[in-house]
Amino acid sequence: MVYFWIYLAVINVFAFVMYGIDKRKAKEGAWRVRESVLLLLAAAGGSVGALFGMLVFHHKTKKAPFKVRIAIILVLQVIAVGAWLYLRNPALESPLIRKDGATLAERFATPEGFVRAEAPAGSMTAFLRGYAMEPHGSRVKRYDGRTKSGKTAVAVFSMHLGTENLQQCADSVMRMYAEYLRASGREDEIAFHFVSGFLCDWPTYRSGKRVTVDGNDVQWYDGAAESGSDETFESYLELVFNYASTLSMWEESAEVPLAEVQVGDIFLRAGSPGHVVMVVDVCEKDGRKAFLLAQGSMPAQQFHVIRNDAHADDPWYYVDEITYPFETPEYTFDRGSFRRPVYLTVGSQGEDEK
Fold this sequence. Notes:
Elements: H1 2-28, H2 35-57, H3 64-87, H4 104-107, E1 115-116, H5 124-129, E2 153-156, H6 169-183, E3 191-193, E4 199-201, H7 202-206, E5 209-214, E6 217-222, H8 230-243, H9 246-251, E7 253-255, E8 266-269, E9 275-285, E10 288-295, E11 304-306, E12 317-318, E13 326-327, E14 332-333, E15 338-341
Antiparallel strand pairs: 1-9, 2-11, 3-4, 5-6, 7-15, 8-9, 8-15, 9-10, 10-11, 10-12, 13-14
Helix pairs in contact: 1-2, 2-3
């Protein structure tokens, strides 16, 4: 970035000087700078210097075709630079982001002096830190293939999305928990409540049971052969996404002190619509904790790590800097919104990570 602005400064000064030299040569009747060279200097990024050279030295100002060419070049370059400044995401230039990092932990360095909390093998923390990421600079894609506008994301998870408008904010969090349990050999614990209160668990769905929904009346019935395939798993999650939301997530979570933050915790506002962001990594320095946040949103879109507007060059959020109402790039959370889901215990009596 710095080199780009240095280049623009140098090329514009050089163009300005060359227009002055050519004007002097014209007065002296000496060998001139070719007009094509003067235009090339403008096209190479020196259009502002060229224009000022024309005005200051009163050079080429009576040649209409030349003036038109310079004007066109200047307008096109202003539009190009303006579009680039609008589309670029300064947060992506953070020194804490490793552009070649393939996983979450490889992509994000910790702030100076901070170290990542220990992640036992098989833990959700280890699972998330090893989660594959899209290439650096990838834009967030929506379910319909279109690109999300805005500059909220600093990294995008390589998470399955689907082609329906289903996997939104709460759904992305539920998918992450479900994927973790399935990948760690604990798939019998996968279970989520519908807003109606009905517990839709993966083991029952995997056995071939399906559900009928009539308002708040939900019943299992025999509807398919037993299958634990990826296709069946996706079908199960789509069912959950249709009938669960931030409202059911609120009932499946409990408020915890922010000082006890751990991977998998959430900031949640239940409603229709509500919103939720998830803690995907934690680090610490002398008792001071920092964490990364990720979200899905409406319409259905890729799960992504969000920037921290309090620090333009640092995506980590610091516990001692959090005040309420707590503002994230796209949502504001009130006191009491920091919660811990019970998804690691709702389907069985297994214990959550401590």
